[in-house]
User: What shape does this take?
Amino acid sequence: MTASVSPGLREAVWQANQALVEAGLVRLSFGNASGIDRDAGIVLIKPSGVPYDELRPEHLVAVGLEDGQVREGEARPSSDTPTHLALYRTYPTIGGIVHTHSEAATVWAQACLPIPPLGTTHADHFRGPIPVTRPLAEAEVGADYEAATGAVIVATLDELGLDPGDMPAVLVASHGPFAWGGDPLEAVANAIALETVAAMAIRTYALNPAVQPMAGYLLERHFRRKHGADAYYGQRRR
Amino acid sequence: MTASVSPGLREAVWQANQALVEAGLVRLSFGNASGIDRDAGIVLIKPSGVPYDELRPEHLVAVGLEDGQVREGEARPSSDTPTHLALYRTYPTIGGIVHTHSEAATVWAQACLPIPPLGTTHADHFRGPIPVTRPLAEAEVGADYEAATGAVIVATLDELGLDPGDMPAVLVASHGPFAWGGDPLEAVANAIALETVAAMAIRTYALNPAVQPMAGYLLERHFRRKHGADAYYGQRRR
Amino acid sequence: MTASVSPGLREAVWQANQALVEAGLVRLSFGNASGIDRDAGIVLIKPSGVPYDELRPEHLVAVGLEDGQVREGEARPSSDTPTHLALYRTYPTIGGIVHTHSEAATVWAQACLPIPPLGTTHADHFRGPIPVTRPLAEAEVGADYEAATGAVIVATLDELGLDPGDMPAVLVASHGPFAWGGDPLEAVANAIALETVAAMAIRTYALNPAVQPMAGYLLERHFRRKHGADAYYGQRRR
Amino acid sequence: MTASVSPGLREAVWQANQALVEAGLVRLSFGNASGIDRDAGIVLIKPSGVPYDELRPEHLVAVGLEDGQVREGEARPSSDTPTHLALYRTYPTIGGIVHTHSEAATVWAQACLPIPPLGTTHADHFRGPIPVTRPLAEAEVGADYEAATGAVIVATLDELGLDPGDMPAVLVASHGPFAWGGDPLEAVANAIALETVAAMAIRTYALNPAVQPMAGYLLERHFRRKHGADAYYGQRRR
Assistant: This one.
């Protein structure tokens, strides 16, 4: 069975990886972006440790959604591939995933704190506090570490009763953010929004340590302006 | 009645939107710039949710100043259009308005604090503390939210007895800044100055929490160097 | 008497103004750079309020060192010209001066605090704490304000017994930095070094509020590595 | 004996110096990169005080590993050459060294604090806290200062029992970082990683002063993912 990767998916995943660089979310070979062809059951992802300026569309690696085996490509897939697969398997609405060590979001992950909603920039993209996972236990890190990272992201959303469309990012404690969306470029946009609100929130607390989260009705209004049946932001393309 | 938009206004509004990107004040599709033709009673504004790198002058949308109805253009106008209209209707001296989520100014808006004048960079552009609005009530957010945002900006200036020429920006609580000027590019310049003084002020308080606002006579001298009948800064173009 | 400006000085002052932009030290029309022809008794300076991207060498304005009258050029000279003249008149070794509102240096000026020497980056350029002036009195601001700014810089160096070659920058309280050097580009280099050490010092105090200034012998060693008869840094061009 | 420098080494050291600029780790003429030809016993290094934009491959200076005498090149070698030589002599596995005054790493050096491991970005590159040296004594600074800087870096690693491959950077107190690697570009990559984790750590402590270092088993897992016999990150090139 050799399902072939569509040129459109290959182009989209390559563009998403480049967009991470252009947005300043990655340095060196940190981070990765992937996309999925649900019909073919194939995930296309950045190869491991390849610098972004050397990355070409044909370097991307296709792996099976269920078995994680390489279907196309001569390189090793990203070492974080099992994390991506766990998310794609659990959430059928996700079409693209990005992982970065973007500075401000990683600061919240290292501080092991969720990012409270402090303004409409946050509310436009995230329907509530952006959660942080619990720390992984030694047994989880010692065994199938990257799969355990995916599992703890899923467990975090589950425990909070969050839909991945309402909360398109999670911070992995002592590590950094994963973000997703309907396609690879939407995942990048959510990672950019995450970095922006993370940076704003750090500085807001520094300026006013007593600041309270924004009003729930304002958060809901802004999220609903952009998402769901009553959205009136944008050009009716959603 | 089909008033047509002058090419000069279209070019100015398009340039102002591009200048927001070049100045680093906007990311993704955050923010918007508009301009007005007072004779024709028409406001020209960015379409909603369109990325800046795809924006062309012909994409800008013309709406009636009084009724808010689309006069020219095939796209939806910015969802913040009612806020712009409220300001244009109240202040006849305003020729351009920009809205951004620029990082440091938004931090003050999220902290729900006005920006005190701490130095001449501030005084060159803003004649006193840059105000922050009260939070909007649930009823205001639930009904005509964007018009209510315009109304609370006007109410904020009114209560402080401020002229929009002396104070060309207001922070909307839990949201971000609106700035204006005699034309769209002057509005952008004020938004740049706002972001600059907002960033400086955050760091000044971090370095010296006991810092006091600058002397009133120094503030007045610098503002008057650049504005009004006795201005002696620049090339006599004002 | 019409002394003409040498092409070399015009080019150097123009390059210095452009270098301020490239180094990120200025935005909008903030700031200015000047140079002097001591033989001709002429100072060449940026015109007032002209954006840097419109500035051409022929726009620079020549004024007399002693009388401050325009000798060449059709524009108004920078409103800060009397400050530059005061420094050139007092210090015969100065060949170029720059004024900026660069962010971190302005933060120290707004905080009304001198910048203590915390590391060798500082010591390579500044032989001790970088001083801040006292606030100007109302009478000084109300009369010949820009000349008073020059006078308070000179008074600050005088009171501390500092030579302008050992301390090539002063922070003007509630305003921002002035920096100088043997020629206009050296003045820019000192302004860049100032902004760098100012930014580092803000963050060093945030990280470790109890930090002490560096050892005097280390400061002296580094300053002497680059300046004076025993300098051994660089290519023997000084 | 006139050993000639291989074109490959010259190109690599030149690229490393340029990469410092592109990565934003150096300004003005701060910093330097070097590489070594172990067979020829020659170290190739940036000339002293030359701005990076004027630096050409043929300007690099070759000095003898053991005697420090210039073998090729018409310029003075970097004044920090004795520091580089001390490291090359002590650690035979090092193929490239860079010195910068990159902002965040220098902040830790100025604060005289080691950088604790707070997340996987750190653990991917540094196997534990990144150490800071003790302050140099007056006698050390007064005599062969740059050689003493090299000696205190070596002493710091020795006292902590650290291998230079496990800990490819040290902060010199009141000065800034030195970083190294198997070749000059790997040294640059480690300097970039250092600056990144230094910046993240400053902000993490600001956000959560009570934060604890990451779990040792997570640190070890990430370091081992990229280094040593069991590494599975990257494309099997190590």
